[in-house]
TrEMBL record:
Residues 385-556 are annotated as: Disordered. The keyword Flavoprotein applies. Gene3D superfamilies: 3.30.70.2450, FAD/NAD(P)-binding domain. Residues 416-439, 456-469, 481-496, 503-519 have a biased composition (Basic residues). It comes from the Bacteria. Keywords: FAD, Flavoprotein, Plasmid. This is FAD-binding domain-containing protein. InterPro entries: FAD-bd, FAD/NAD-bd_sf, RIFMO-like. Residues 16-350 form the FAD-binding domain.
Length: 556
């Protein structure tokens, strides 16, 4: 049910959905609704499109959304791919970190730096092709709703217009009129004040990376634009701005020289902005026939560049559900799931961006001394912080210290890990039987790791014999998870005091089965070859899995 009353009567095909706000979120919602066959009207109170850059980072999930809309080629050609995060302090490069997308299956393992104005232009062109044109200078002044429709009041250049639509979508930013008219408060707080400037920078920094520079008691971030030598500079400590952009340029140049330890030239910024970080959200993103998306529902720190991306994903989640409900293909409960799904994401986003803000600004006075020491230790430990075990630390598994932009190749198994070539280790509880021989020689050759006596060079019953590498036969068997009575106990090391290693915890193998052999491999790996064959005389004789010696029982 849609009507319009502006003195000229209702249009022949009135809109079904009114979208307030023609930023990236509103444009995404309009494009997705129009793609699904709804009639959409898109209005914005601004006099025209924005010309400043504002948000820049576009992450993998948003790129996938643009791909589904058929817009990815236009955006990729206008942006710059970023796959690095470089840290500087005291004239030194502390680390170059690359994101790990191994747990995020995506066709776009990158961050695309493209200014918001370019993103909006691509989305406006897509909306126009679908018959949706942005109406600039049209302000939403009020609305009421009932069980069947939303009755809105619009202020245009020709006066007041009354429009009735089935649904209203508020994408009108952090100062949302729709949210205020609904009476939904933004809950949260405000914290730091930062300064942003867009300027040309000559500092010899590679533009395939975001750069974090420790300078005095604060930090400076340098984020590359698609254009050559153009950067976004962020000051987290000194946000004073008296209106003179040249003073801002000189202040950035001074701090960058101190942090990078080389000559730096910063041109007069084309745009300077001072803002206070807000960390706020609403507890419900819909009320009746009115829904909210993007900054109208949650505002947060720009650290990690999540604002535009979260808003675009809000709009995408909302649009397909709203289209199905309006067309009568789904019940209202489907649309109710939008708020139930997106509110927890907004809550988690506030927590993660708050942590990112603290890491970016790093105001601790000891950080300037501690950071070089920490990263010097990381470099001494080898690539990705790998020590003698060949395993990287947990932070480095997510952000491997590497100079390559491609994902790190898989590393070979660590020494001592029980893994037979070409096959998986047995599952815990699998009955592997008992070894027939203590240690076998490879076919047609001498043993690569002969077993030697632990003391005095004598083989004696009851002794544990050691290999040259220091591993005893007992340790090898227990390391592979084999109980001395033939029970596989899982891939873990047992000690003498553990229940698995005590003789009192014996368990007989499966009747009528015995293993073919137990082979030793280099570096302490002891794969079990589970070739089991029936023993002609019933249960096989007792074999000691620790010393590999026959028991006194006859019948072998």
């Amino acid at each position: 049910m849609t009507t319009a009353d502006n003195g000229g009567g209702a249009p022949p095909n009135p809109p079904q959905v009114l979208v307030a706000g023609a930023g990236p979120v509103g444009l995404t919602a309009a494009v997705e609704l129009a793609r699904r066959g709804l009639r959409v009207r898109l209005v914005d109170a601004a006099s025209g499109p924005a010309v400043t850059s504002r948000a820049m980072a576009t992450h993998a999930r948003s790129l996938e959304t643009y791909d589904q809309q058929g817009l990815i080629d236009d955006l990729m050609s206008r942006g710059r791919r970023i796959q690095r995060f470089t840290m500087h302090a005291g004239g030194r490069t502390l680390a170059r970190l690359g994101p790990d997308y191994s747990r995020v299956p995506t066709r776009y393992p990158m961050t695309l730096m493209i200014d918001q104005a370019a993103t909006e232009e691509v989305l406006r062109q897509a909306a126009a092709k679908l018959g949706v044109k942005v109406e600039w200078g049209v302000r939403l002044e009020g609305f009421t709703q009932d069980a069947d429709a939303v009755h809105t009041v619009l202020r245009t250049a020709d006066g007041e217009e009354h429009l009735t639509v089935e649904r209203l979508v508020g994408c009108d930013g952090g100062h949302s009129t729709v949210r205020k008219l609904l009476g939904l408060p933004l809950l949260g707080d405000s914290s730091e004040t930062w300064l942003i400037a867009d300027a040309e920078l000559e500092a010899g920094l590679p533009q395939n990376s975001i750069h974090w520079i420790k300078a005095g008691r604060g930090t400076v971030m340098a984020i590359p634009f698609p254009e050559e030598n153009k950067w976004r500079l962020l000051d987290t400590a000194d946000a004073s701005y008296g209106g003179d952009p040249d003073q801002v340029a000189e202040r950035f140049a001074r701090k960058l020289r101190a942090g990078l330890g080389r000559p730096v030239k910063v041109s007069t910024p084309s745009w300077v902005s001072v803002f206070t970080i807000q960390q706020r959200m609403i507890t419900s993103m819909s009320e009746g026939r009115v829904v909210l998306a993007g900054d109208a529902a949650h505002v947060h720190s720009p650290a990690s560049g999540q604002g535009l991306n979260t808003g675009v994903q809000d709009a995408y989640n909302l649009a397909w559900k709203l289209a199905l409900v309006v067309q009568g293909h789904a019940p209202q409960t489907l649309l109710d799931s939008y708020s139930a799904e997106r509110v927890p994401i907004g809550r988690a986003l506030l927590g993660s961006t708050r942590k990112a803000t603290r890491l970016v600004q790093l105001k601790n006075s000891l950080a300037g001394v501690a950071l070089p020491l920490v990263f010097a230790l990381v470099r001494r430990c080898g690539p990705c912080g790998a020590g003698s075990s060949g395993r990287s630390s947990a932070p480095c598994r997510r952000w491997p210290c590497t100079t390559r932009t491609a994902p790190d190749p898989p590393r070979p198994p660590s020494p001592g890990r029980h893994r037979a070539a070409g096959r998986h280790p047995p599952h815990p509880g699998h009955r592997a039987g008992r070894p027939r021989h203590r240690l076998e020689r490879p076919a047609g050759g001498a043993a690569r790791h002969p077993v030697q006596p632990a003391r005095g060079g004598r083989r004696r019953r009851g002794r544990a014999y050691r290999r040259p590498g220091g591993h005893s036969a007992r340790g090898l068997a227990l390391r592979a998870g084999v109980h001395r009575r033939g029970r596989y106990l899982g891939h873990r090391r047992h000690t003498r005091s553990s229940p698995a290693a005590r003789p009192g915890r014996r368990r007989a193998p499966a009747p009528g089965l015995r293993p073919r052999r137990l082979a030793a491999r280099p570096a302490g790996r002891l794969p079990l070859r589970a070739r089991l064959r029936p023993h002609p005389g019933g249960p096989s004789p007792r074999l000691d899995a620790v010393r590999g010696l026959r028991s006194a029982r006859s019948g072998a």
